[in-house]
Amino acid sequence: MAGYQVASLARLIEQFERMPGVGHKSAQRMAFHVLHLSDAEAKRFAEAILDARQNIRRCSRCCNLSEAELCPICGNPGRDESVICVVEDPRDVIAFERTHEYEGLYHVLHGVISPMNGVGPEDITIQELLSRMADGKVQEVIMATNPTVEGEATAMYISRLLKPMGVKVSRLAYGVPVGADLEYADEVTLTRALEGRRTL
Fold this sequence. Notes:
Elements: H1 7-17, H2 24-35, H3 39-55, E1 57-58, E2 65-66, E3 80-87, H4 90-99, E4 104-108, H5 126-131, E5 140-143, H6 149-162, E6 168-171, H7 187-195, E7 198-199
Parallel strand pairs: 3-4, 3-5, 5-6
Antiparallel strand pairs: 1-2, 6-7
Helix pairs in contact: 1-2, 4-7
């Protein structure tokens, strides 16, 4: 903030600006919104942030976000354990669950292989995925990484590791536009992509 500044407000705006996709004007709007909250509302807002930071961890099986050892999906005995859908981000799990069409399990990579950004195979949860193949229950792995260069490269890399294990590896059909993020895809598009998946 050039010229007139209130230091506490400037610091608050700066924190909001650090969020992905939030520019200076949006950060200002959020900061002023927070200033207009009652003390009780502001306290609830702050407590929600701290609570999320303290209680949310990775599911020990699929690496999705969870408050318990296993996330609600892995802990559901009604899910099909023979199929794993591999996604980049926990938000992608939410997108697939909105379709109400997929009954299998997930695996969250928490990123993609991107040498340009210094992200190698060891920086995402590929090893954890491979460990899940040990009990022989998994028959198909659906690669549902985003249709970007990095997403495609990650899908191909993982498929090469899985094929010698005798697991069918498929890729989402391109009802999902190239370059799009799965979290923004609508339910119909994701359902068609699931139904039209192909073997890698």
